[in-house]
Design a protein that fits this description.
This protein is of the alpha/beta class. Helices cover 49% and strands 14% of the residues.
Amino acid sequence: MSTTGRASTVIRLSEEVADALARGLPVVALESTIISHGLPQPRNLEVAAELEEIVRRGGAVPATIAVLDGVARIGLDQAGLERIATQPGLRKLGQRDLPVAAALSACGATTVSATAFLAARAGIRVFATGGLGGVHRGFTVDQDESADLDTLSRTRITIVCAGVKSILDVPATLQRLETRGVSVVGYRTGEFPGFYVHTSGIPIDWRVDSPAEAAAIMKAQDALGGAESALVVANPVPPADQLDPELHDRVLAEALAEADRRRITGQAITPFLLDFLVKGTGGASLEANLTAVRGNAAIAAQIASYWSKEN
């Protein structure tokens, strides 16, 4: 069996996505963990539909990605979205989990690493999400680093995000992205976003001020060749919609202290800290996250539209 034939058995594009790609129309990938693990029911399904509608209003075709019964689905119909939103025990799948899920006919929502990988395999160039994973605080002790970084170092995708999750070591994450050859630009900002807050206070070397400039960088990536690394377009949440910075810093410090007291480490640390932030801010951190995702989806659609005109 050919490589293409094998891929067709484990990766399936929706008719709409396949048609758009065949015609050179803009497509934006969306991850599914925000639906399955990030929001309560029934709001999660409402947000899933909202994000797809934002992409459509921006002139692009949305491709929400997930794995259902072992098949990576690139673009979900209503039934697929409902399964991701309501099916109990749904797994969180990173890139490393995809072959296992395929072989065992498992179901799962895709994280940044899995979504980026599958989008690129399908021929989708632009991906919108909330925030990236990265280097965890205390890395010198426990060597905890998100698989997102490794995937982005070898995946030609443009990912629009609000920076990296603020529970992480942001300077170390930016250094790692530089080491691994991942280009990072600020969208109308010279400072790296702070995920829940407008800025992390850390300057970045490059900025773009329009979707057209981002698409031009994508074209230059291809023209230059070299490693198939990603482009990170860091788009900050607007100051008026950010989580209050003082509240953020106070609750995050409390969360880190509590995690240390309970000796929570490894894969358990991220969900613990994020849940602590949601509860400690009265849900304000979640609302800031959703505002960021909405903005990123809109900008991703614009970038994808410019990119499709270039090709």
